[in-house]
Amino acid sequence: MIYNVVFFSLAGAIGLANAALTKRVTCPDGVHSTSNAACCALFPLVDALNADLFDGGECGEEVHESLRLVFHDAIGFSPTKGGGGADGSIMVFSDVETTFPANNGIDDIVGVQKQFMADHNVTISPGDFIQLAGAVGTANCPGAPRLKFFLGRPPPKAASPPGLIPEPQDTVTSILDRFGEVGFSPDEVVALLASHSIAAADHVDETIPGSPFDSTPGVFDAQFFVEVQLRGTSFPGTGGNLGESESPLKGEIRLQSDQALARDSRTACHWQSFVGNQAQMQSEFQAAMIKLSTLGQDRSKLVDCSDVIPVPPPLVGQPHLPAGLKQDDIEQACATAPFPALTAEPGMAL
Ligand code: HEM
């Protein structure tokens, strides 16, 4: 049955969540409909995020930083050491958490998002806001899956403990153990790293801020998985930085952790499986992001507001070898299947 909602308060509507689950609700604006009345208030917020935070709907720096923030808030959770997970503690207790070495540079987007919340009188919790911004922003990237969004995280109680966020100089074992502690398999870790397809680094080599991890940082594609598997030949900037490996292209930066995960027997086959399989990469990223975005939360108390997230534009381009490079430049690491055959872009090597 379809019914109109004339007026509701967000908190009250969350209470109606379960009763309304199977019904479509036409929102008071008469334009949008959703599966739950609690979600109606989010539509104007989604528009404001795109207009005022994401430069009119781009897949640019603020989107990339917001997606990184999703991870750094959520992973602050451990069954033994504590932390509230995806609870917004990185924003509310930013004086503590932004000092963690793994959070280098995250104060930028924390500050921008705090200001946005104040300017727009945002009433959802900081934990919800961080996840909403990440999902809305990712939807601006061609080729991205439509991420799910759940509403209703309570305010954080405390800062997360230090030492829970993986760093690029960590070993594969330590990275897989950290993710494993909070329920992610090695395959899911690889899936989450599709995020590095829309990513750049400002602080790995401070002399070259904004250096992308692949040649298509504005597109959610498998190009990241191709380019990290290419033989590294030089450092794009100064070299010798903590957590950096040589990259195959001028201007491109490679994390030591990405280099190692692409070549480790526990993760290499899954890594290459995304090349030429955009649908699998999208669906596994979407599924792993549901887990990440609700870490430390009681999912039964959250309302599924996924239908407020815009539908991302389709993929542009296909995985390829950068100009001048050959299939031989791929460092084959998976023992059971060859790296997918790719054609090279026309032109000279960079
Ligand atoms: C092995 C685990 C991971 C490590 C060691 C790692 C490390 C890093 C580092 C060092 C940077 C560069 C930061 C800077 O210098 O500005 C970065 C950027 C980024 N990371 Fe990760 N990351 C990991 C996993 C993830 C996950 C799971 C996500 C999201 C689901 C994510 C999303 C991003 C994004 C979007 C950026 C780009 C930020 C920007 O362009 O400003 N990362 N990561």
From TrEMBL:
Keywords: Calcium, Disulfide bond, Glycoprotein, Heme, Hydrogen peroxide, Iron, Metal-binding, Oxidoreductase, Peroxidase, Secreted, Signal
Gene3D superfamilies in alphabetical order: 1.10.520.10, Peroxidase, domain 2
Domain Plant heme peroxidase family profile, first and last residues per copy: 67-309
Record's signal peptide: 1-19
EC number: 1.11.1.-
Cofactors, names only: Ca(2+)
Compartment list: Secreted
GO molecular function terms noted in the UniProt entry: manganese peroxidase activity
Co-factor note (free text): Binds 2 calcium ions per subunit.
Family: Belongs to the peroxidase family. Ligninase subfamily.
Protein's name in the database: Peroxidase
Organism from which the protein derives: Marasmius crinis-equi
Upper lineage: Eukaryota, Fungi, Dikarya, Basidiomycota, Agaricomycotina
